[in-house]
Specification:
Layout lengths: L3 H49 L1 E3 L6 E3 L16 E6 L4 E4 L18 E8 L2 E13 L5 E11 L1 H36 L1 H14 L15 H31 L1 H11 L7 H26 L9 E3 H15 L6 E6 L4 E3 L2 H18 L3 E9 L2 E8 L6 H4 L17 H13 L3 E6 L5 E8 L2
Parallel strand pairs: 9-11
Antiparallel strand pairs: 1-2, 3-4, 3-7, 5-6, 6-7, 8-10, 11-12, 12-14, 13-14
Helix pairs in contact: 1-2, 4-6, 5-6, 6-10, 7-8, 8-10
């Protein structure tokens, strides 16, 4: 079964029918036990009334039952279905006026035992209550007697059968009603999944770009993450298109220069060779920049949480080895414990470019400080290099996608960093460091 609805319906059917059948069986057994107990209680009450009418016979050596002291009218009506018989050890000594048949005397009845049982006699069902008692005679000697009551059980079984039929009929009706109700509830409960399927189809047909319906709490995280995934995919596709457009536009000038060189007659001069190498390097730089820009992941919600401190340690250890011969001191201070959502390669691109620039342009000291400031993580990178003039600080973050963006004097690395921090909405500021060089301040939103 591939249908969720079919699986749930089959499971519900099995559970519901099994539960209802077990419930009906338990109810049937409980009612049957209670009805049998009621019949036994009735016969016990009749037995006590018969014992109340017991008296000694004329000889005083035995007992009998005085009909004038009996108050149960059925014991006087022949074939009433209610009979009473009194036995001594050997034979019957009294019977009710209603009793005209011949029932078997109970066997193996121990003294003072009270026994209730169901019997079949002459193709009819009977309840029997037998009681073994000791009764004193005129000499105060105890003699053993047995009082046996018989009651026809046909009415009882007919009544119980009617109850059983009614019970099972209502079971079928209840199951049918509950199945219809469960079907309707299931249609209503699975409706959000059906809507998701319809919206997915609409997105595939380019009729929609996201999930818009107001889904239940259990499904809402799924649609929200799918919306983030769709948004991220659309954003990434747009970046690829823009990067290709930028690449084609940026390569026009170098290609035109190369075309002019190829059309030139005669031998190439040293300047021509230099121009060829220069334009080749520019094209490599343009292609590298646009590829890195297009590969920027962006988007915080779908990224895996990572520790900024761990990547700082890794980057600083690597750069200390690279700039060991320069005698550069790289100081790192960090007390961060929080995480941030960001693609690890994007964060490594930011840290690698900014710290590498500080090491490249710094003379002797590079200072890196990472700390928590309210709900943000702040990263400060400083060097003691020549730095930039105040008017240059205003132009260092000039945004754009053309070639001049890569010619700010910081190489394509800083341009790529600009695009990454913009994609993640990270604040990046430049200032003059206390060490005399450049200071970069980044503010990340921690989770």
């Amino acid at each position: 079964m591939k249908s969720i609805k079919s699986r749930m319906m089959l499971t519900s059917l099995v559970v519901l029918v099994g539960f209802m059948i077990l419930t009906v069986i338990a109810l049937e057994r409980a009612v049957e036990k209670r009805m049998l107990q009621a019949e036994e209680d009735k016969l016990q009450a009749l037995m006590y009334s018969v014992l109340a009418a017991v008296d000694r016979d004329a000889t005083g050596l035995s007992i009998t039952v005085s009909d004038t002291r009996l108050f149960e009218g059925a014991l006087f009506n022949p074939d009433s279905g209610l009979y009473a018989v009194l036995y001594d050890v050997k034979e019957e000594i009294w019977r009710s006026l209603s009793y005209e048949g011949e029932f078997d005397k109970p066997d193996d009845l121990v003294p003072e035992e009270l026994r209730f049982s169901q019997l079949e006699f002459e193709n009819r069902s009977w309840f029997q209550l037998a009681f073994s008692i000791r009764w004193p005679n005129v000499h105060d000697k105890l003699s053993l007697y047995e009082l046996v009551l018989w009651k026809n059980a046909d009415d009882y079984f007919a009544q119980f059968e009617r109850f059983r039929q009614t019970l099972w009929l209502w079971l079928v009706i209840t199951i049918a009603f509950l199945l219809v109700l469960m079907w309707l509830v299931m249609l209503w409960g699975l409706r959000p999944l059906r809507l998701i399927g319809e919206e997915v189809q609409a997105i595939e047909n380019h009729q929609k770009q996201r999930f818009d319906s107001n889904y239940p709490t259990e499904i809402k995280p799924l649609t929200q993450n799918l919306n983030l995934l769709l948004q991220r995919e659309q954003h990434q596709m747009q970046r690829y298109r823009n990067a290709l457009d930028d690449l084609a536009h940026s390569l026009k000038t170098p290609l035109a220069v190369l075309r002019g060189l190829t059309e030139k007659t005669g031998e190439w001069s040293e300047d021509d060779t230099h121009t060829l190498h220069e334009q080749n390097n520019r094209m490599n730089q343009i292609v590298s920049y646009q590829l890195q820009k297009a590969a920027t992941v962006g988007g915080e919600s779908m990224a895996k949480p990572i520790k900024l401190t761990d990547l700082l340690d890794k980057t600083v250890k690597a750069l200390r080895k690279v700039y060991k011969s320069k005698g550069l001191s790289i100081e790192l201070k960090s007390d961060l414990t929080a995480s941030l959502r960001m693609d690890e390669s994007d964060l490594m691109e930011i840290l690698g470019n900014l710290i590498d620039n500080a090491c490249k342009y710094g003379k002797l000291n590079v200072r890196i400080n990472a700390f928590q400031q309210q709900d943000k993580m702040v990263l400060r990178i400083e060097d003691d290099g020549a730095g930039l003039k105040p008017e240059q600080l205003n132009n260092i973050l000039t945004r754009g996608i053309r070639l001049d963006q890569t010619q700010e004097g910081q190489g394509i690395g800083l341009a790529v960093v600009n695009d990454i921090v913009d994609a993640y909405d990270i604040s990046m500021k430049f200032a003059i460091s206390d060490l005399g060089g450049l200071k970069v301040i980044l503010e990340f939103k921690n989770i």
